[in-house]
Amino acid sequence: MTTKPLDSKTKTQSAPRVFLTGIIVVAAAAATATIGISNRAKSVQEVTRWTNEQAIPTVAVVAPTLAPGQDELVLPGNIEAYYTGLIFARASGYVKRWEKDIGAHV
Fold first, then answer.
1. Local structure of 14: helix, strand or coil
2. Pair 106, 100: CB distance under 8 Å
């Protein structure tokens, strides 16, 4: 196997290619970073705008009106006291007249 020695012409031709490839890689990385940062900033602005719109409460105002008459609702049930006590009269007899209310000064 024979190898060719590298001459100075081959070295000088590959150096600009490496430099050009490096510039292209750096430019592509910068473009990708710029696009990513701008998309991120745009998303933050959209979320901020949407949040501010949602922060305003939506209220539906209705004027009260009289509803049509409804039927009476009758449910089965019994009413009983929790505690019961016996009440006895202090005197025997019947009440002939009741002129004052309970709790009134007599």
1. helix
2. yes
Between CA 76 and CA 81 the distance in angstroms is 17
Angstrom CA distances, 77 to 7, 74, 80, stand at 112, 9, 10
Q: Tens of pLDDT along 46-69?
A: 999 999 888 888 888 999 888 887
Give the global pTM: 0.37
Question: In residues, how long is the chain?
Answer: 106
Amino acid identity, position 101:
D
Question: Which amino acid belongs to residue 60?
Answer: A
CA distances from 95 to 9, 52, 88, 98, 104 (A): 138, 76, 14, 7, 17
Q: Determine the Cα–Cα distance for residues 54 and 47; give it in Å rounded to an integer.
A: 10
pLDDT digits (tens, 9 = 90+) for 92-103: 888 788 888 888
Cα angle for residues 66, 71, 77 (degrees, 5° grid): 125
